[in-house]
Design brief:
About 30% of the residues lie in helices and about 35% in strands. By secondary structure, the protein is of the alpha+beta class. The strands form three sheets. Strands 1, 2, 3, 4, 5, 6, 7, 10, 11, 12, 13, 14 and 15 form a 13-stranded mixed sheet that branches. A two-stranded antiparallel sheet has the order 8-9. β8 and β9 form a beta hairpin.
Length: about 375
């Protein structure tokens, strides 16, 4: 009886321990447990490595608001080559208020219309990039994030001395116009002011010299930013008739660009093209030339480069570590349980949950107490 009472007292003291002991089966080392641990730490390292690259990456956020700036001037950046001599063509701007803008900021440079081999290679590359931009609009975000790293889109200089006559005119420079709809055009004859608008001295130019084949090396609005491609950059049109009209209908959208490399106020635009042969006998009336009719949107696009905050990166990292620990532990227990069942090693009571029962006023654990019969 004394031995029985002593063992009962020892078991009761163990039950009163504030720090319960972990069963030995929980801490024993097994091959499967070691394999799961290695796989878990490998997965955590890989996911943390990829998460770090996500943290380093940035994205562009687009916001729209009403453009309240209506007093400033709009800058037009132009670089167009026309297949006519410079003394036969003139370029100017006439806005919606019938205000003629002087073309003092434009330069007329005699050049050869045909490109050199290196220039033609550059032009084909530019057209390829433009076609990809029309198909993959997300590439524009890449250009925004690398604006200062990009090379200028202007046509590179010739690497050889041309033997052909200078049969074309390169019109390049910039103009400042009012922020209203307008019409920039290149047509026959120099522009002269007129009380009712303006006129071109086309009567002094022979009709046989008309050739409005042209190449737009660069056309942008607002602040010129290196590395930004515009929809009309690289456009080349070849005229099949002396009386040919090329029309570009442009919608300009004010854009405020804020990245970690640059902050600028520029403009994006969309364009619709149309061309036709002037034939008054067939009812196709108009003036031969290149006409760019632009209109300005009342909405402004704000493009901001954003970055994942540090606290969000740490929370995602903790979620990865905790999730892998919980998932691998659950899978390991489930697979072990299934293996024991399949291998017929399942023993009754091994997976039975702990229960606390009161017996004779004492706490009875899973450890069986010795009975009097066992003592005897």
């Amino acid at each position: 009886m004394r031995r029985l009472n002593r063992k009962k007292a020892l078991n009761f003291v163990k039950e009163l321990d504030a720090f319960p002991k972990v069963p030995e089966s929980y801490v024993e080392t097994t091959a499967s447990g070691g394999t799961v641990t290695v796989l878990a730490f490998t997965a955590m390292a890989l996911l943390a490595f990829f998460e770090f690259f996500v943290y380093r990456d940035t994205w562009m956020k687009y916001e729209y608001e009403v453009d309240k700036d209506f007093t400033s001037k709009l800058r037009i950046n132009i670089d167009i080559t026309v297949a006519m001599r410079c003394q036969f063509v003139g370029a100017d701007v006439l806005d919606l208020a019938e205000t003629m803008v002087a073309s003092d900021g434009l330069q007329y440079e005699p050049v050869v219309f045909d490109l050199s081999p290196q220039q033609r290679l550059w032009h084909r590359t530019l057209l390829l990039i433009q076609s990809r931009l029309r198909e993959e609009h997300s590439l524009q975000d890449v250009l925004f994030k690398n604006v200062m790293k990009g090379a200028p889109t202007a046509l590179p200089p010739r690497e050889d001395d041309p033997t052909q006559p200078l049969n074309a005119c390169r019109i390049h420079g910039h103009l400042y116009v009012n922020k209203v709809a307008g019409n920039f055009h290149i047509t026959v004859g120099k522009a002269i002011p007129h009380p009712r608008g303006h006129a071109h001295l086309a009567a002094l130019v022979s009709h046989d010299t008309y050739n409005f084949s042209h190449r737009i090396d660069h056309l942008s609005f607002g602040e010129e930013i290196p590395g930004i491609l515009n929809p009309l950059d690289g456009t080349e049109k070849v005229s099949t008739d002396h009386n040919h009209m090329f029309q570009y209908f442009i919608t300009i959208v004010p854009t405020k660009l804020e990245t970690y490399k640059v902050s600028a106020d520029t403009h994006q635009y969309s364009v619709t093209e149309r061309e036709r042969v002037i034939n008054h006998a067939a009812g196709s009336h108009g003036v031969s030339g290149i006409f760019m009719k632009y209109d300005i949107s009342s909405l402004m696009v704000k493009v901001t480069e954003q970055h994942m905050p540090l606290w969000q990166f740490l929370v995602r990292l903790c979620g990865i570590i905790g999730g892998i620990f919980s998932t691998t532990g659950l899978l390991h227990s489930l697979v072990g349980f299934c293996v024991d069942v399949v291998c017929c090693r399942f023993k009754l009571g091994v997976y039975k949950p702990n229960r606390m029962n009161l017996l004779d006023g004492h706490v009875n654990s899973l450890t069986p107490l010795l009975s009097e019969n066992s003592e005897h």
